[in-house]
Amino acid sequence: MKLNLVVATAISSFFVSAGTGFGFSSQARALTFSGISSGTWGEPTPRSTDTNPTYRGVGNNSFTWGKPPLSAGLPSKLTFDGSSFSADIDSVFKIADLTYFNGTVLKGTSVGFVPLNINVSFSPTVGISQFFDFKLGLISTVNEVTPSENNADFVFIDTNLSNRNFTFGGNKYTLELTGFDPDVRQLSIEALEEATTTTAIYAKIKSIPESAPVVGLSLLGIYLIYRKNFLRRANSKSLGN
Fold this sequence. Notes:
By secondary structure, the protein is of the alpha+beta class. It folds into 2 domains: 2-22 and 212-240; 35-208, no CATH class. Helices cover 24% and strands 40% of the residues. It contains 2 helices and 13 strands; from the N terminus they run αβββββββββββββα. It has a 7-stranded antiparallel sheet. Helix 1 (2-29) runs antiparallel to helix 2. The radius of gyration is 27 Å and the shape is elongated. It starts with a helix and ends with a helix. The model is unreliable at 5-25 (pLDDT under 50).
Protein backbone atom coordinates (compact mmCIF):
# COMPACT_ATOMS: atom_id res chain seq x y z
CA MET A 1 0.00 0.00 0.00
CA LYS A 2 2.86 2.38 0.77
CA LEU A 3 4.36 1.72 -2.64
CA ASN A 4 1.08 2.52 -4.38
CA LEU A 5 0.85 5.75 -2.39
CA VAL A 6 4.27 6.81 -3.66
CA VAL A 7 3.17 6.06 -7.23
CA ALA A 8 0.02 8.10 -6.83
CA THR A 9 1.93 10.99 -5.27
CA ALA A 10 4.53 10.97 -8.06
CA ILE A 11 1.89 10.91 -10.81
CA SER A 12 -0.17 13.64 -9.14
CA SER A 13 2.92 15.83 -8.69
CA PHE A 14 3.80 15.35 -12.36
CA PHE A 15 0.41 16.54 -13.58
CA VAL A 16 0.42 19.49 -11.19
CA SER A 17 3.89 20.50 -12.44
CA ALA A 18 2.89 20.01 -16.07
CA GLY A 19 -0.30 22.01 -15.58
CA THR A 20 1.64 24.83 -13.97
CA GLY A 21 4.08 24.85 -16.88
CA PHE A 22 1.28 24.99 -19.43
CA GLY A 23 -0.30 27.80 -17.40
CA PHE A 24 2.88 29.86 -17.63
CA SER A 25 3.02 29.26 -21.39
CA SER A 26 -0.57 30.46 -21.83
CA GLN A 27 0.15 33.60 -19.84
CA ALA A 28 3.30 34.20 -21.87
CA ARG A 29 1.40 33.96 -25.16
CA ALA A 30 -1.09 36.58 -23.93
CA LEU A 31 1.60 39.20 -23.24
CA THR A 32 2.23 42.29 -25.33
CA PHE A 33 5.73 43.73 -25.26
CA SER A 34 6.32 47.39 -26.02
CA GLY A 35 9.32 49.66 -25.78
CA ILE A 36 12.00 51.40 -27.80
CA SER A 37 15.24 50.22 -29.39
CA SER A 38 18.65 51.70 -30.05
CA GLY A 39 21.81 50.19 -31.46
CA THR A 40 25.58 50.50 -31.76
CA TRP A 41 28.16 48.75 -33.92
CA GLY A 42 30.96 46.61 -32.51
CA GLU A 43 34.50 45.74 -33.55
CA PRO A 44 34.35 44.24 -37.08
CA THR A 45 35.97 41.05 -38.33
CA PRO A 46 37.97 41.35 -41.59
CA ARG A 47 38.03 38.56 -44.16
CA SER A 48 41.30 36.92 -45.12
CA THR A 49 41.40 39.09 -48.26
CA ASP A 50 41.01 42.29 -46.24
CA THR A 51 44.72 42.98 -45.77
CA ASN A 52 44.23 46.64 -44.87
CA PRO A 53 40.80 46.92 -43.19
CA THR A 54 39.71 50.52 -42.75
CA TYR A 55 36.69 51.41 -40.61
CA ARG A 56 35.20 53.91 -38.16
CA GLY A 57 32.15 54.09 -35.91
CA VAL A 58 32.65 51.35 -33.30
CA GLY A 59 30.34 52.22 -30.40
CA ASN A 60 28.15 54.49 -32.54
CA ASN A 61 24.95 53.91 -34.48
CA SER A 62 26.74 54.70 -37.80
CA PHE A 63 29.57 52.52 -39.10
CA THR A 64 31.79 53.12 -42.15
CA TRP A 65 34.28 50.80 -43.81
CA GLY A 66 36.59 50.77 -46.83
CA LYS A 67 38.99 53.34 -48.23
CA PRO A 68 37.77 55.31 -51.29
CA PRO A 69 40.19 55.47 -54.25
CA LEU A 70 39.70 59.22 -54.48
CA SER A 71 39.94 61.77 -51.69
CA ALA A 72 36.48 63.04 -52.59
CA GLY A 73 34.94 59.57 -52.40
CA LEU A 74 32.89 58.17 -49.56
CA PRO A 75 33.29 54.81 -47.78
CA SER A 76 30.46 52.32 -47.38
CA LYS A 77 28.18 53.06 -44.45
CA LEU A 78 25.55 51.43 -42.23
CA THR A 79 23.26 53.49 -39.98
CA PHE A 80 20.98 51.92 -37.39
CA ASP A 81 17.99 54.00 -36.29
CA GLY A 82 15.99 52.47 -33.46
CA SER A 83 12.23 52.83 -33.17
CA SER A 84 9.37 52.28 -30.73
CA PHE A 85 7.33 49.08 -30.98
CA SER A 86 4.40 47.17 -29.53
CA ALA A 87 3.98 43.51 -30.37
CA ASP A 88 2.33 40.33 -29.17
CA ILE A 89 4.24 37.10 -28.65
CA ASP A 90 5.17 35.37 -31.93
CA SER A 91 4.16 38.38 -34.05
CA VAL A 92 6.56 40.15 -36.41
CA PHE A 93 7.24 43.81 -35.67
CA LYS A 94 9.55 46.58 -36.86
CA ILE A 95 12.43 47.08 -34.45
CA ALA A 96 14.54 49.61 -36.39
CA ASP A 97 15.48 51.17 -39.72
CA LEU A 98 18.74 50.36 -41.49
CA THR A 99 20.33 52.68 -44.05
CA TYR A 100 23.04 51.19 -46.27
CA PHE A 101 25.27 53.27 -48.55
CA ASN A 102 27.47 51.31 -50.97
CA GLY A 103 30.64 53.31 -51.49
CA THR A 104 33.39 52.61 -53.99
CA VAL A 105 36.41 51.43 -51.98
CA LEU A 106 39.82 49.95 -52.65
CA LYS A 107 40.25 46.19 -52.64
CA GLY A 108 41.49 44.83 -49.32
CA THR A 109 40.19 47.74 -47.22
CA SER A 110 36.75 46.29 -46.39
CA VAL A 111 35.60 44.07 -43.50
CA GLY A 112 33.57 40.86 -43.53
CA PHE A 113 31.35 41.02 -40.45
CA VAL A 114 30.28 43.69 -37.97
CA PRO A 115 28.51 43.08 -34.62
CA LEU A 116 25.23 44.90 -34.00
CA ASN A 117 24.43 45.51 -30.34
CA ILE A 118 20.73 46.29 -29.92
CA ASN A 119 19.51 47.77 -26.65
CA VAL A 120 15.78 47.26 -26.03
CA SER A 121 14.21 49.36 -23.28
CA PHE A 122 10.89 47.70 -22.52
CA SER A 123 7.92 49.69 -21.22
CA PRO A 124 7.41 50.17 -17.45
CA THR A 125 5.03 47.19 -17.47
CA VAL A 126 8.04 44.94 -18.13
CA GLY A 127 10.54 47.32 -16.60
CA ILE A 128 13.79 45.94 -18.00
CA SER A 129 16.44 47.10 -20.44
CA GLN A 130 18.20 44.32 -22.33
CA PHE A 131 21.15 44.18 -24.72
CA PHE A 132 21.00 41.71 -27.62
CA ASP A 133 24.09 40.87 -29.68
CA PHE A 134 23.70 40.17 -33.39
CA LYS A 135 26.02 40.18 -36.40
CA LEU A 136 25.72 41.41 -39.99
CA GLY A 137 27.75 40.11 -42.90
CA LEU A 138 29.14 42.47 -45.56
CA ILE A 139 29.72 41.26 -49.11
CA SER A 140 31.68 43.49 -51.50
CA THR A 141 31.84 42.63 -55.19
CA VAL A 142 34.55 43.50 -57.70
CA ASN A 143 33.20 46.33 -59.83
CA GLU A 144 32.92 45.98 -63.60
CA VAL A 145 33.93 48.75 -65.98
CA THR A 146 30.34 49.49 -66.88
CA PRO A 147 28.13 50.18 -63.82
CA SER A 148 25.36 47.61 -63.54
CA GLU A 149 23.49 45.48 -61.04
CA ASN A 150 26.56 43.22 -60.96
CA ASN A 151 28.30 45.96 -59.00
CA ALA A 152 25.78 45.78 -56.17
CA ASP A 153 27.06 44.93 -52.68
CA PHE A 154 25.12 43.10 -49.98
CA VAL A 155 24.41 43.10 -46.27
CA PHE A 156 22.94 40.02 -44.60
CA ILE A 157 21.87 38.90 -41.13
CA ASP A 158 24.01 36.12 -39.70
CA THR A 159 21.33 33.63 -38.61
CA ASN A 160 23.80 31.61 -36.55
CA LEU A 161 23.89 34.43 -34.01
CA SER A 162 20.66 36.30 -34.62
CA ASN A 163 18.62 35.25 -31.62
CA ARG A 164 18.99 36.09 -27.94
CA ASN A 165 17.15 35.16 -24.75
CA PHE A 166 15.77 37.15 -21.81
CA THR A 167 13.61 36.44 -18.76
CA PHE A 168 10.46 38.19 -17.56
CA GLY A 169 8.02 37.09 -14.88
CA GLY A 170 9.80 33.78 -14.43
CA ASN A 171 9.34 32.89 -18.10
CA LYS A 172 12.02 32.80 -20.80
CA TYR A 173 11.76 34.51 -24.17
CA THR A 174 13.96 34.97 -27.22
CA LEU A 175 14.28 37.98 -29.51
CA GLU A 176 14.91 36.95 -33.11
CA LEU A 177 15.72 39.15 -36.07
CA THR A 178 13.45 37.81 -38.82
CA GLY A 179 14.85 39.88 -41.68
CA PHE A 180 14.04 42.88 -43.85
CA ASP A 181 10.48 41.96 -44.85
CA PRO A 182 7.52 41.38 -42.51
CA ASP A 183 5.87 38.76 -44.73
CA VAL A 184 8.70 36.66 -46.19
CA ARG A 185 12.10 35.56 -44.92
CA GLN A 186 14.41 38.12 -46.54
CA LEU A 187 17.75 38.07 -44.74
CA SER A 188 19.79 40.30 -47.08
CA ILE A 189 19.60 43.67 -48.79
CA GLU A 190 21.63 45.14 -51.65
CA ALA A 191 22.69 48.57 -52.83
CA LEU A 192 24.06 49.58 -56.23
CA GLU A 193 27.43 51.29 -56.45
CA GLU A 194 27.31 54.80 -54.95
CA ALA A 195 23.63 54.28 -54.05
CA THR A 196 21.68 54.08 -50.79
CA THR A 197 19.12 51.52 -49.62
CA THR A 198 16.91 52.16 -46.59
CA THR A 199 14.82 49.38 -45.13
CA ALA A 200 13.18 48.28 -41.90
CA ILE A 201 14.57 45.50 -39.70
CA TYR A 202 11.92 43.16 -38.34
CA ALA A 203 11.97 41.02 -35.25
CA LYS A 204 9.88 38.56 -33.28
CA ILE A 205 9.63 37.74 -29.56
CA LYS A 206 8.98 34.06 -28.90
CA SER A 207 8.27 32.30 -25.63
CA ILE A 208 10.48 29.36 -24.67
CA PRO A 209 8.19 26.50 -23.49
CA GLU A 210 8.51 25.25 -19.94
CA SER A 211 10.16 21.85 -19.68
CA ALA A 212 7.38 20.26 -17.60
CA PRO A 213 8.17 16.70 -18.82
CA VAL A 214 11.65 17.08 -17.30
CA VAL A 215 10.01 17.60 -13.92
CA GLY A 216 7.98 14.46 -14.47
CA LEU A 217 11.08 12.47 -15.33
CA SER A 218 12.76 13.70 -12.15
CA LEU A 219 9.81 12.52 -10.08
CA LEU A 220 9.88 9.19 -11.89
CA GLY A 221 13.55 8.83 -11.01
CA ILE A 222 12.78 9.49 -7.33
CA TYR A 223 10.04 6.87 -7.47
CA LEU A 224 12.32 4.25 -9.06
CA ILE A 225 14.99 4.80 -6.42
CA TYR A 226 12.36 4.47 -3.69
CA ARG A 227 10.96 1.32 -5.29
CA LYS A 228 14.44 -0.23 -5.49
CA ASN A 229 15.08 0.44 -1.82
CA PHE A 230 11.61 -0.78 -0.90
CA LEU A 231 12.12 -4.10 -2.69
CA ARG A 232 15.58 -4.51 -1.16
CA ARG A 233 14.15 -4.10 2.34
CA ALA A 234 11.30 -6.47 1.53
CA ASN A 235 13.72 -9.15 0.28
CA SER A 236 15.89 -8.72 3.35
CA LYS A 237 12.91 -9.29 5.64
CA SER A 238 11.90 -12.43 3.64
CA LEU A 239 15.38 -13.91 3.96
CA GLY A 240 15.44 -13.09 7.65
CA ASN A 241 12.20 -14.98 8.18
